[in-house]
Amino acid sequence: MNIRRQLEERLSAALLAAVGKPMPAMVAPAAKAEFGDYQANGIMAAAKAAKTNPRKLAEAVLAKVDLSGLSEKVEIAGPGFINIHLRNEFLTAGVNALAADARLGVPPPDRPQRVVVDYSAPNLAKEMHVGHLRSTIIGDCLANLLVFTGQDVTRQNHVGDWGTQFGMLLAYMDRLGQSGQSADISDLEEFYRSSKALFDSDEDFARTARDYVVRLQAGDEHCRRNWESFLDQSLRHCEEIYQALGVRLTRADVYGESAYNADLPKVVGDLRAKGLLKESQGAQCVFLDEFKDAEGLPLPVIVQKSDGGYLYATTDLAAIRYRVGTLHADRILYVTGSPQALHFAQVFAVARKADFAPGDVQLEHIGFGSMLGPDGKPFKTRAGGTVKLMELLDEAKKRAYELVTGKNAADVAAGRANELDEQQRREVARAVGIGAVKYADLSQNRTSDYVFSFEKMLALDGNTAPYMQYAYARVMSIFRKAGLEVESVQASPIQLDQPQERALGLKLLQFSEVIDSVAANCQPNLLCSYLYDLARDFTGFYEACPVLDSPEPVRSSRLALSAGAARVIRTGLDLLGIQTVEQM
RNA sequence: GUGCCCGUAGCUCAAUUGGAUAGAGCGUCGGCCUCCGGAGCCGAAGGUUACAGGUUCGACUCCUGUCGGGCAUACCA
């Protein structure tokens, strides 16, 4: 059940009847408690369009609207807002339905969309570093969320497994082999560095490396075998990272640049056949009027270099064709950094022009800002190198372990918590440490840069993963104390008598609204702030409304309400890719 | 040069896409533990939303200009 949508539909219908033209009622949760539960903001705009007085129009809308059963009081306020106070019986029925619903009030879609989510996409020549973190975290969250809403999701890991650097790496593997050393690429970073150093200093080796690229592309069996073995080891490293992060990407989702290799000449051929191609300075280009250079001339999208090679625009065009033609995508999300905005705008424009992507296929670049260090500059090690992802995650877990260990000891001394053994503390530290890294990223507006700070993300207070996990553990401690399972009480009838119960119930019912917006706008920070609000509403309820000490049927009602809160928090965090723990 | 993004409390960030008196957290100050986990709760102070104009019932949001920052801008991805 989506309250907002119900109100929107009914009010929009009344608005249509009143002005004779379809106009959105613009229903939103009320900005302030005194304005009720929801407000309609669309009357003023509609009045302007219809050239009538907004307050009069509001009256006309209220005369026509059918909100029976939903609202107990509707008011016109200010220049023409409509404030809606919902009936308690309506909310109560909704909360009881949510408690019984495995999907927590999120309706399945009328027709599932096939959505391709392209994210993570590490370069397999090197070890994963912090530059891959945001794409991996944000993309995985969006994929989880779309799956939950019932869409048909295909994850695509567009790994960098092709290009000149692999010639260098393969040549280096062989050189080590010839001199009797085994090519140890367990430390990818070290292997890449050594081969790069040789490539830069030794002209002979550089020539050999370039020759290897040609051999690899020509399908030379030896090169091919070494290449595959290299990729296998590199992917194994990625999988360790994904596992450590709790990211749901697998081998089956890997569809790298090399997969499009054979298709690149066809892409260029098709563009030529459609008359979109122009040669310029020896390169094959598509010129687009909507992108201009300094002189106001159309900007080129180069799809084939003057030496015959292809570029990432070509690969991305081939990928669009594959995703539309073979995967039957209705919507494709590209989770990559904001600096690539122009690139994707160009690729999308070419894809439309060439009809690789029909107009009804949504192409969206889900851009994000950079991760900055505490100094506000790009996140680097003290020595100025790139930070390896595994080391970052290890440090997060280590810090979380110290935090958890110290806090648990204090809580045990104060008689507030059970003592956790070593094993339990390690598990909690993993959930908290990794959760902190992810939550800090996801709770931020995607498009802005953000400052990475272990201290802030592992802070004991505020809008952090530890706070959310604590809130969950606290709900669960009620059930532990009562000797009950969440599932065993969730069907009890819920009443919303106290204001705090009503506020919590309404918040639970808004879960589906938030899920809707996040799915539409790809803004996980909205889900974070919703969960934070929910946790605070729960705390308000918890402080004001005794659960276990209340007489029946209030006790059962409050237990069921708590169960609902626990399930929504757990589900919400799970969509963010964050684990919950029962005790901490 | 041109294009895109950004500039909000001392700090880190929000603001439901044009809605009502711009909200949280941290930090600061003041309260609350015979009470289901105080990693908590309640309250206070803190703002010319970079600046100057404009559009309208209404602007952090849209338009113009200025200042400051980031990114991109033909053969890396």
Structure description:
- The protein has 584 residues and is an alpha/beta fold.
- Among the domains are: 3-86, Arginyl tRNA synthetase N-terminal domain (Gyrase A, domain 2), CATH 3.30.1360; 164-250, no CATH class.
- It has 21 helices and 13 strands.
- It is flat, with a radius of gyration of 28 Å.
- The mean pLDDT is 93.
- The structure holds one RNA strand of 77 nucleotides.
Describe the structure using short key phrases.
single chain, Gyrase A, domain 2, RNA-binding, four-stranded parallel sheet, 13 strands, 584 residues, alpha/beta
Mean pLDDT: 93
Low-confidence segments, given as residue ranges, are: none
Provide the β-strand percentage band: 5-15%
Q: Could you give the distance between the termini?
A: 34 Å
Coarse shape: flat
Rg measurement, Å: 28 Å
Strand order of the largest sheet: 1-2-4-3
Strand count:
13
Determine the fraction of residues in helical runs and give it as a percent range.
Answer: 40-55%
Number of helix segments?
21
Largest sheet: 4 strands, antiparallel
- Which class do the helix and strand fractions yield? alpha/beta
